[in-house]
Each structure stands twice: as structure tokens, then as C-alpha cells.
Design a protein that fits this description.
Low-confidence stretches: none
Shape: elongated
Strand content: 25-35%
Distance between the termini: 64 Å
Number of strands: 3
Mean pLDDT: 80
Structural class: alpha+beta
Radius of gyration: 19 Å
Length: 76
Amino acid sequence: MSIKRDKRIRRHKKIRINMHGTKDRPRLFVFRSNQHIYAQLIDDDKAKILISVHDKDFKKNLKERLSLISQNRSVN
């Protein structure tokens, strides 16, 4: 393994010691790539992902909503 990767893993473990999600108060995990953003709510007690969303869903739903609105306006 590289030294850079070892340092990143060490930092990650150090931060995760203090972070813990439960069912009542889940942990929010956000990953941002160059093009998209992803978010998850995580219950660490059961090691389960409660919900997962990404911006691709919103963009698709937004396009559908806009097309419905434009269809409704053309009918009126």
C-alpha cells in the first residue's frame, strides 16, 4: 500500500470513532464526484442503509414534472 493511502485510512478511522448513526439519529454520508452528488442515511447499529438518493433521480423527476406542467399549460 502507498503511504498516502495509509494516511487517508488512518484519518478515516480516527474520524469514524466519534461518528455513529442510530435508527433515531442516522449518520448522513455524502459523496460528491465531479458530475454528481450522492447521499445516504446510515444506521450503524444494524449496519443498514436506510435511504439512498442521488442527483440523477432529481434531474429525471424534474424533467418529468416540467413536461407535465408544459402539457397542462398547452391544454388550458
